[in-house]
Amino acid sequence: MNTLFAETLKTLRQEKGLSQHELAERLIVTRSTVTRWESGLRLPDATMITRISKALGADVNKLLTAATQSDEAPNIIIVDDSKVILSDSLPVLEAVVPNATITGFIWPQEAIEYAKTNRVALAILDIELGTASGFDLCQTLLEINPHTNVVFLTAYPDYSLDAWNTGACGFMVKPLTTQSVRNQLTKLRYPFWGGADT
């Protein structure tokens, strides 16, 4: 349950003088969908949050931030065979998603074992992991949990075309920045704060 997003949405809607039915019409959803959002039972996905922000004239980042402040901290992993990249990237992720549990891995197998016992909401993967492939790791993680958002992080933009054939939902070029992470959070296939509702 996400009470912060629910309260934020209700407040913004009431400030605009809209009923749940009127907001639902603007968003082309049912009134019961808006009711579930405002009760904290469901969360809209990132695409719908963008639509809500336009319908209410609200800051999309405010809504996204409220959505990520769920009662259950999302698990985010980053896998890179460079300790330097990991140590530089972890603070960036913590700055953007301060409520998340963020874990770095050098070895793909350790990330796989972690994913088997923890619901991974977002996996940021290097493509070249020593003798292993980030593409293969992506496939394994999605087999464990098809709702894991996978985003590739690489120094080689040429890999971007190959990345789209893996089930990943994003691609970032090293080094990781707060802006690139924020951009990716608006494009996730499965919002990591809970079940999507469109």
Biggest beta sheet summary: 5 strands, parallel
Q: Could you give me the name of the CATH homologous superfamily of the largest domain?
A: Response regulator
Oligomer: single chain
Helix fraction bin = 40-55%
Strand percentage lies at 15-25%
Give me the side-by-side strand order of the main sheet.
2-1-3-6-7
Number of domains: 2
Task: Give an overview in words.
By secondary structure, the protein is α/β, with parallel strands linked by helices. It folds into 2 domains: 3-68, Orthogonal Bundle (434 Repressor (Amino-terminal Domain)); 75-185, Rossmann fold. The protein has 10 helices and 7 strands. The strands form 2 sheets. It has a 5-stranded parallel sheet with strand order 2-1-3-6-7, sandwiched between helices. Strand 6, helix 9 (160-163) and strand 7 form a beta-alpha-beta unit. Helix 1 (3-15) packs antiparallel against helix 5. The radius of gyration is 18 Å and the shape is elongated.
Any key phrases for this structure?
single chain, 198 residues, alpha/beta, 434 Repressor (Amino-terminal Domain), Rossmann fold, 2 domains, five-stranded parallel β-sheet, two-stranded antiparallel ribbon, 10 helices, 49% helix, elongated, disordered C terminus
Task: Give me a quick take on this structure.
The chain has 10 helices and 7 strands. It has helices at residues 3-15, 20-27, 31-39, 46-56, 60-68, 83-96, 108-117, 134-144, 160-163, 178-185, and strands at 75-79, 101-105, 120-125, 128-129, 132-133, 149-154, 170-173.
